[in-house]
Design a protein that fits this description.
Length: 350
């Protein structure tokens, strides 16, 4: 069917979809389905910034650094200590662990689809871009606890890293900037695996259940989720107050204190592999997806900063189940690590 669609084009595609499920509940009108195919289609290539273009040796260097505890003071932590490929590039904890074993204020976010995050990074946007993130966990005394100068010195003392930097950058100079660039290049290869939802968007009607189709209608319609969780990555890369109780954390407003709208505003996370990433929210305060749906159904805490899209939804029990069924279709199958390892070296493709 996929092959057929490619051959005969979009207009006929919509027709086939209609014939497959004639006007019944959970199937959107043709025009909407066609529009969704545009909005949610897997992109053709991973975007890399001109200032840090892709190269295979740089990505290989970044991969090695990402998994290497050489970047922590007592050589026992790596980026992958918290961003674990097998846990959807997070750590399954409500809040990340400090070096002393207590809780940080924030949950470890997934790194899936960071290449498409074109705005500031971090739950409150404290990082300007991907290239500027890594030095913070490395240097933080409660985290990897290694001064950047010491990190650079350690890498310089290692012959294989000298070779690695030379092939990645054309000369063997090792600097904090190049360390950032190599790590960011690898991180951009962490792309959502193909999920049942993608197969359905591509035209395979049997890829997801009827409940999930109804859930997707709700997601785009009555429940209003797609106003913020939009597009292929299911995020607008923006910051909103969705009405969660946040303790003392005022989110993005900490950096922009004059803005009322940004009080309690946190980054809209991607919903890719969402089933694998409990507990949820910036502080891990919601144990499961049913609790997330309940929060949205109630509309969260009503306060001046609460996003205007957030309001009580009056979802029935069945509608909640349908939304959950849809969310489950966003989880891909197979090994994350293998998926990223198989990108062609010269022309990276998701
Ligand atoms: C102790 C666990 C831990 C370690 C180790 C760690 N991180 Fe993180 N990471 C976090 C937490 C927690 C956040 C959220 C920070 C914030 O929002 O202020 C985060 C945020 C990020 C983000 C931003 C993601 C987004 O969606 O905005 C990136 C990128 C990232 N880390 C990459 C790295 C890299 C690269 C390393 C290794 C140099 C690393 N992390 C080491 C816990 C960790
Ligand atoms: C106004 C924008 C907005 C709307 C509308 C919205 N969300 Fe969110 N969503 C967010 C933000 C922002 C967060 C992160 C909040 C936080 O961490 O405190 C979030 C978090 C989540 C999470 C947890 C993700 C994670 O990694 O922890 C899920 C799941 C989710 N939303 C699903 C939904 C569903 C389902 C709907 C519709 C019922 C919806 N969202 C509507 C902005 C929105």
């Amino acid at each position: 069917m996929l092959f057929l669609m490619r051959k005969i084009g979009a207009a006929t595609t919509a027709l086939i979809l209609t014939i497959a499920a004639p006007g019944s509940a959970g199937t959107a009108p043709d025009s909407r389905r066609a529009a969704w195919q545009d909005l949610y289609r897997t992109p053709d290539a991973i975007p890399f910034p001109e200032t840090n273009p892709y190269s295979a040796p740089k990505a290989d260097l970044g991969r090695r650094l990402f998994f290497d505890p050489i970047l922590s003071g007592n050589r026992d932590r790596a980026c992958a200590t918290c961003h674990l490929p097998g846990l959807a590039w997070a750590d399954g904890r409500a809040r990340a662990a400090t070096l002393a074993g207590s809780d940080m204020d924030l949950r470890t976010p997934t790194l899936i689809n960071v290449a498409w995050q074109d705005g500031p990074m971090g739950w409150d946007g404290k990082f300007r871009d991907l290239e500027t993130v890594a030095r913070t966990p490395i240097a933080a005394s409660g985290n990897m606890n290694l001064k950047l100068v010491d990190a650079v010195a350690r890498l310089k003392a290692d012959t294989s890293y000298r070779d690695g930097f030379a092939s990645a950058f054309g000369d063997p100079m090792i600097s904090a900037e190049r360390l950032d660039q190599a790590l960011a290049t690898f991180e951009r290869l962490i792309v959502a695996r193909r999920a049942p939802f993608d197969r359905w968007i591509a035209g395979d009607e049997g890829a997801i259940s009827r409940a999930a189709m109804i859930g997707f209608d709700l997601f785009n319609g009555k429940a209003g989720c797609a106003q913020c969780h939009s597009g292929w990555s299911f995020t607008d890369n923006s910051f909103h107050d969705i009405g969660t109780a946040t303790g003392g954390d005022i989110g993005r407003a900490r950096l922009m204190p004059k803005s009322v709208a940004l009080r309690y505003a946190f980054k809209t996370p991607t919903l890719r592999d969402i089933d694998l990433r409990a507990p949820y929210m910036h502080d891990g305060s919601l144990p499961d997806l049913a609790a997330v749906i309940d929060l949205y159904d109630k509309g969260g805490i009503d306060r001046p900063s609460r996003a205007r899209e957030i309001k009580p939804l009056s979802l029935s029990a069945e509608e909640k189940t349908d939304l959950l069924a849809f969310l489950a279709t966003l989880t891909g199958a197979g090994d994350q690590e293998v998926a990223t390892a198989t990108f062609p070296a010269d022309a990276p493709k998701p």
